[in-house]
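agent> fetching stored inputs for the thymidine-5'-diphosphate docking request
agent> found them:
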Amino acid sequence: MPRGVFITLEGLDGSGKTTQIKRLAAWLTRRGQEPVVLRQPGGTPTSDRIREILLDSRSAPLHPMTEAALMFAARAQAIAEIIRPALDAGKIVVCDRFTDSTEAYQGGGRQLGSAAILDLHRLICGGLQPDITLLLLPGFEASLARARHRNLRVEAETGRNENRFEVEQDAFYRRVWEKYREIAAREPDRVVLIEGDLSIDEVHEQIVEAVAERLLAKV
Ligand code: TYD
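agent> prediction call returned; pasting tokens
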């Protein structure tokens, strides 16, 4: 069986990834595919439990290496349980965040550096790479404001506090942002950078164009 297609979406909190993933999944479904959609950290019961530890404000202070290790622990389980089996079965996997997030947030934001994260990736994920990564980088200020607003709303509606990352300072997000740009420049064949303050429809158009252009033969 040919290997399936592995698509990841990346970006700062508040970049509109969730909306775009839903639209991309619907587009793939209309083309007769049955995409497997998951998010990280998460995707399996164990990975979701690790996610709770990672995002809960009560986990602070969490050492950056603990944070990175837990991200990879959740990822290893998702790869073993969901991603590898789906790809082996020739399916399309759409993943909301993957190792680029760890490189950007823990490598850049928490300043662990790229080398440590890429070493862990080789060791723990067997170097599994997405076929295509859609990196959404709308205006920095707009993303941050959206992320913070969303978090307050979710907390008011559900009582859940998942804002351990959103309370970080602008300087942290600047480093994340810069690391994302560095990754895009380093791996232009894999990473499609979608920047600027585009409408939801415009971003969707760019996403499907990139997916169709690069993966049409496989999809
Ligand atoms: P989530 O609520 O899923 O945010 P979003 O919808 O913006 O993706 O929270 C995931 C948070 O975890 C987000 O702030 C980014 C962070 N993160 C890392 O720091 N490292 C990682 O490897 C991953 C996968 C996520």
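agent> quick read of the result: The longest helix spans residues 64-88.
agent> awaiting further instructions
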